[in-house]
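Colleagues,

For the teaching module next term, I've prepared a clean inverse folding example: a structure given as tokens, and then the sequence designed for it. I'd like students to try predicting residues themselves before seeing the answer, so please don't circulate the second half yet.
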């Protein structure tokens, strides 16, 4: 039986969430604070932990860090729908949590029933996804070695700076390119050989060779994505002079905080996207959590952006596919699509569209993806040019925009 540990300082929340999970067929234990959560994770050995963020004695952020250092486990954060809660949740994701759910606070129509249903559904998905043990091990092994200009501690990136090319059959969409994707680990013998490695954080990149003029990169991610996206922006070289669009599945209060965090980490000017915004070289925009992000046009090396509050695609808004397909239709300069860790298949159609438009395509590898659903579905289309570990994504992007396919690390 799948085991779930519920960590929350509210007896009411522990009871309602625990009862909902028990009724769903899970074996459940509860803890009243982070300290108890760390101890029970070691003894109960849960498959999934739901973790409140703000608690006495030890908060959820410190508990996540302790658990990932001693007993790497799938961690789902329950966060208050506030500015403080959003920042704390991003800190927890930085330290190894794979996803989060925001608690109802009376600001919208969500209530406790909505929360418990969402918790059960998400735990079902996480338990089914079989989160990569290698990714968890790497998250646990990251060392706190740098402090940002804001004074926030950050951890070393995952994966080495290698840039593995995938097999020719995959690149050309041949029969051997087929992957069976259900967000689970699959038989390695059913796949072409894909090089992947781990090691120290990769060195900063200097762009070598002839760079494409006014290139555009579209980066899509879901479960486990914020930490990887941060690592990408830390290494993305300013002299690439790209325009970057980020689609990360999360609510609006969190996307604005993510944009602010990326801006503090990066040489690029990063903001949450606005309707009719003009995005130029050296700038990046994060799709807001309430809208799809589209490229309206590409004139004079700049992008005109458009926000669309239309129906959810693949159950999400913003959707990676919407941004990528609009870029494939309207970007006339060099274009690259990147799909990172996450559940589901959002991004697969977008990768196909970018490839058909003559752009380059990149997917994160299985070993460094906390959840290999989105990258695997994209690879299964036969339209991915390159598979790279988390810390090789930037190298692959730079190579996609340089004519000799080389960059100087």
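(Answer key — instructors only)
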């Amino acid at each position: 039986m799948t085991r779930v540990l519920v960590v929350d300082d509210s007896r009411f929340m522990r009871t309602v969430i625990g009862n909902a999970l028990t009724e769903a067929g899970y074996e459940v234990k509860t803890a009243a604070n982070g300290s108890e959560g760390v101890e029970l994770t070691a003894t109960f050995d849960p498959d999934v932990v739901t973790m409140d963020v703000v608690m006495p004695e030890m908060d959820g952020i410190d508990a996540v860090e302790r658990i990932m250092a001693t007993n790497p486990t799938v961690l789902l954060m329950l966060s208050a729908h506030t500015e403080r809660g959003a920042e704390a949740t991003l800190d927890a994701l930085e330290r190894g949590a794979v996803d989060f759910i925001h608690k109802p606070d009376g600001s919208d129509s969500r209530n406790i029933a909505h929360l418990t249903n969402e918790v059960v559904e998400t735990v079902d998905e996480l338990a089914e996804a079989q989160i990569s043990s290698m990714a968890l091990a790497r998250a646990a092994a990251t060392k706190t070695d740098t402090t940002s200009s804001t004074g926030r501690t950050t951890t070393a990136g995952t994966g080495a700076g290698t840039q593995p090319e995938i097999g020719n059959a995959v690149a050309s969409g041949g029969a051997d390119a087929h992957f069976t994707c259900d967000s689970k680990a699959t038989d390695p013998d059913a796949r072409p050989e894909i090089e992947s490695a781990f090691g120290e954080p990769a060195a900063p990149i200097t762009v070598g060779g002839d760079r494409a003029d006014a290139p555009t990169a579209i980066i899509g991610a879901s479960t486990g994505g914020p930490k990887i996206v941060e690592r990408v922006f830390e290494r993305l070289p300013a002299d690439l002079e790209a325009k970057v669009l980020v689609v990360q599945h999360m609510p609006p209060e969190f996307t604005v905080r993510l944009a602010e965090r990326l801006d503090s980490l990066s040489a690029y000017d990063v903001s949450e996207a606005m309707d009719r915004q003009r995005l130029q070289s050296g700038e990046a925009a994060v799709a807001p959590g309430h809208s799809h992000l589209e490229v309206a046009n590409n004139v004079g090396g700049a992008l005109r952006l458009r926000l669309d509050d239309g129906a959810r695609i693949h159950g999400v808004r913003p959707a990676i596919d919407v941004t990528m397909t609009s870029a494939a239709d309207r970007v006339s300069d060099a274009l690259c699509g990147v799909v990172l860790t996450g559940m589901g298949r959002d991004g697969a159609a977008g990768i196909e569209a970018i490839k058909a438009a003559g752009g380059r395509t990149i997917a994160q590898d299985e070993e460094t993806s906390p959840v290999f659903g989105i990258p695997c579905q994209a690879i299964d289309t036969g339209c991915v040019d390159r598979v790279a570990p988390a810390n090789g994504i930037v190298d692959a992007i730079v190579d996609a925009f340089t004519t000799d396919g080389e960059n100087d690390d």
